[in-house]
């Protein structure tokens, strides 16, 4: 059973920093496009940052220069968030496209979400 397990959310003051982690567990033959989305109350889920084909990265315009996505292996990604703003309060979700075993279909997986609250 494939799972994306997130950690690192919490309460931080405006201007502060947080680091989120996401690890893929279970049977993973291939994994691609691993990244982070967020959803604020009453808003649609939006891309924050992700690895794409060829290990390039893409970021939402609003976070460029403040957030950094990184990885230390194929199954684990991080999101370093600096200079956080109150309107970035949201549930942050890890996302990836995974082929569990050789020959299987590729499926899109979501983590359970981790709450990030930016408030004084």
- The percent of residues in helical segments reads under 10%
The amount of beta strand, in percent, is over 45%
The radius of gyration over CA amounts to: 14 Å
Shape: elongated
Q: Compute the number of strand runs.
A: 11
User: Distance N terminus to C terminus?
Assistant: 40 Å
Sheet having the most strands: 7 strands, mixed
Low-confidence residue ranges:
none
Query: Given the helix and strand composition, which structural class is it?
Result: mainly beta
Number of helices, where a helix is a run of at least 4 consecutive DSSP H or I residues: 0
Q: What is the H-and-E element order?
A: EEEEEEEEEEE
Average pLDDT rating: 96
What do these coordinates show?
With 120 residues, the chain is mainly beta. It has no helices and 11 strands. The strands form 2 sheets. Strands 2, 4, 5, 6, 9, 10 and 11 form a 7-stranded mixed beta sheet that branches. A 4-stranded antiparallel beta sheet has the order 1-3-8-7, with no helix packed on it. The protein is elongated and about 50 Å long. The termini are far apart.
């Amino acid at each position: 059973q494939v799972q994306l397990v997130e950690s690192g959310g919490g309460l931080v003051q405006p201007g502060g920093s947080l680091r989120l982690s996401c690890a893929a567990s279970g049977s993973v033959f291939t994994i691609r496009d691993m990244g982070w989305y967020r959803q604020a109350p009453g808003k649609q889920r939006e891309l924050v940052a992700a690895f794409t084909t060829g290990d390039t990265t893409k970021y939402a315009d609003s976070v460029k220069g403040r957030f950094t996505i990184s990885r230390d292996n194929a199954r684990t990604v991080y999101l370093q968030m600096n200079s956080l703003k109150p309107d970035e309060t949201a549930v942050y979700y890890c996302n990836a496209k995974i082929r569990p075993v050789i020959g299987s279909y590729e499926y899109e997986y979501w983590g359970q979400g981790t709450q990030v609250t930016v408030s004084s």
